[in-house]
Amino acid sequence: MKIPSSNLNEVRLLDRAVLVLNANYSPMMICTAKRAICLDYLDKIDILANYNEKVSSPSLTLDLPSVIKIKNYVRYDNLSLDLNRKNIISRDDYLCQYCGCNKGPLTIDHIIPKGKGGTDTWENLVAACKPCNQKKGNQKPEEVGMLLRKKPKRPNRLHYFQKFVKEKQKDWRPYLFMEPFKT
């Protein structure tokens, strides 16, 4: 069964990212437009901003939500991100932190190797290309004459949300402290 192209475009619109704010306007998560529409139907959210597009069913047409705020405050103070490969590479902007290369797959390197007391922490893990990781081996960067492009640090969820902001998500910017609210 082939889906007509107009319906296929609406399916893609329903997958559009929506910024979810807590009742106190603090950013919580990102969900799909489909989820946001369901929450609106259940009267659990307020829609604060919409995309320019609309979605339709046989009986109604809705603006596509872009920013929503849940009505009842949820105790949620977790702005930290999980320490994992995907988040380390994203924090490092998909660049090797030694040579700046963005070609080929990236590995995760312990700045201070585990064998020399290094730990699995945000401050000790960086993205590295395979040649740099192999060159460094089980040494500290300064022992092999390598320098880090920037000092690694723990990111927070705001940085993660800010990476989602493209031209279509300009309404997100004030809620993510990227620009002031317009009065």
Report what the structure shows.
The protein is 22% helix and 23% strand. The chain has 183 residues and is α+β, with helices and mostly antiparallel strands. The protein has a four-stranded mixed sheet with strand order 2-1-4-3, sandwiched between helices. Strands 5-6 form a two-stranded antiparallel sheet. The longest helix is centred in the first third of the chain and has 10 residues, at 5-14. It is elongated and about 65 Å long. The N and C termini lie far apart (49 Å).
Summary of the model, kept short:
By secondary structure, this protein is α+β, with helices and mostly antiparallel strands.
Question: Which helices and strands occur, and which strands form pairs?
Answer:
Blueprint: H1 5-14, E1 17-21, E2 27-32, H2 33-41, E3 45-56, E4 61-70, H3 85-91, E5 106-110, E6 125-129, H4 130-136, H5 157-164
Parallel strand pairs: 1-4
Antiparallel strand pairs: 1-2, 3-4, 5-6
- Helix fraction bin: 10-25%
Number of helices: 5
Beta strand %: 15-25%
Radius of gyration: 21 Å
Distance between the termini: 49 Å
Number of strands: 6
Helix/strand order, N-terminal first:
HEEHEEHEEHH
Major β-sheet, in short?
A: 4 strands, mixed
Task: State the shape.
Answer: elongated
Mean pLDDT: 90
Give the spatial strand order of the biggest sheet: 2-1-4-3
Number of domains: 2
- Uncertain ranges: none
Q: Return the structural class.
A: alpha+beta
